[in-house]
Amino acid sequence: MIYMDNAATTAVRSEVLEAMTPYFGEKFGNPSSLYGSATENKKAINEARRVIADTIQAKEGEIFFTSGGTEADNWALRNVAENYADKGKHIITTKIEHHAVLHTCEYLSKKGFEITYVNVDEYGMIKMSELIKAIRSDTILISVMFANNEIGTIQPIGEIGRIAKKAGVLFHTDAVQAYCHVPIDVNEMNIDFLSASGHKIRGPKGVGFLYVREGIKLSPMIFGGAQERKMRAGTENVPGIIGLAKAAQLESAELLQRIAKERRARDYLIERVMCEIPFTRLNGHRVNRLPGNVNFSFQFVDGESLLVMLDMEGICASSGSACTSGQKAPSHVLKAAGLPDEIAYGTLRLTLSEDTTREEIDKTVNVVKKIVTELRNKSEKQKMLDE
Ligand code: PLP
To answer: Which of 65, 231, 265, 282 is the most buried (most CB within 10 A)?
Structure first.
């Protein structure tokens, strides 16, 4: 099998699994219990919090564990709506956010909030002039994803943070695809809320965190016990939290070498495909893109058929966002970048990891080339038959 879908999820690192395992066995205690073996678990959770805080230059008390990126996104947006509505009811976001943000915005708009969806250009970069123009005296939040899950475009987060700060508006970024894939400093970038997830960084699924800048009003995500300083009740996912912290520690320590390696592989893949397969468009920004992300649209090709045929050849890939697969509507991200539906339908996302080899890339390109040619020939024949 060739795994080219690391934006959907990643394989857990062996060191992460090793760090988690005792918490399923001898270290099974409830961190809220008062005997020694259980309080050790409480300490381990707080050590994990410290490790994670260090990876984004945050303070330990600014990290709240969640069940993943979706929950962190929901919490950030709903919290600002709840606590800052007296200042205003206007939120700014973009058209290319993950559904965890978009559907929360939809919900908030039903509750009387006004949402402005800023456009992106053909490379998926936010239109900064539109963003600046959209800010009003009643704007309470700007939420812009750090990097897009489909096309990999990285937004100018530092610049957006500066603008938000100057305007006195809170700033949330969904960094699920960016965390441990690009360097992040919440202070330098003036980020007030940041969402991240374990399973995109070779950690476990079902765990993530929300960073909340100290001093910002925060309401509980869920009510119950005193866990997470009464902000996110429920017995902690101890193995998950330990695994998340281990993955974050290892992946951030190796970040720069990994970026260089993945970029080389990514650029080689892009070059081969763009040179060897005609009528192909590279989606996303050529330079400001995630190191492991490649996204092509092949004209005259049905992306779903391409995926099925790749699967039969043992290649795991995606047509866009895993969360929307199964839906026949073309991706909202590609639409926002101005792609006509018929081209958007022929989209293939390949997302690499540092373990992706040159041989795997060569095999993938050769297979994609063969299938694209086959599908184009078929559609050409079909067209003739139809005529
Ligand atoms: N935000 C982005 C940009 C994502 O890519 C994803 C997952 O694909 C999520 C949020 C949701 O994260 P999780 O799967 O941890 O809930």
So the answer is: 65
What residue spans define the domains of the chain? Answer: 2-8+255-386, 14-253
Report whether 210 contacts 64 (CB < 8 A): yes
Q: Which of 102, 196, 86 is nearest to 140 (CA)?
A: 86
Q: Report the chain's mean pLDDT, rounded to a whole number.
A: 95
Q: Distance between alpha carbon 196 and the CA centroid of its chain, in Å? A: 7
Taking the whole predicted model, whether its pTM rises above 0.90 is answered as yes
Q: What pLDDT does residue 32 have?
A: 93
pLDDT exceeds cutoff 80 at 387: no
Nearest CA to ligand 1 atom 4: 176
How far is ligand 1, taken at its centre, from the CA of residue 69, in Å? 5
3 Cα–ligand 1 center, Å = 19
Q: Which CATH class is domain 14-253?
A: alpha beta
The yes-or-no answer on residue 180 being catalytic is no
Give tens-digit pLDDT for 67-110.
Answer: 999 999 999 999 999 999 999 999 999 999 999 999 999 999 99
Higher pLDDT, 326 or 91: 91
| Catalytic site residue from 105, 180, 316, 323 | 323
What distance in angstroms lies between residue 100's CA and the mean position of ligand 1's atoms?
Answer: 7
205-247 tens-digit pLDDT: 999 999 999 999 999 999 999 999 999 999 999 999 999 999 9
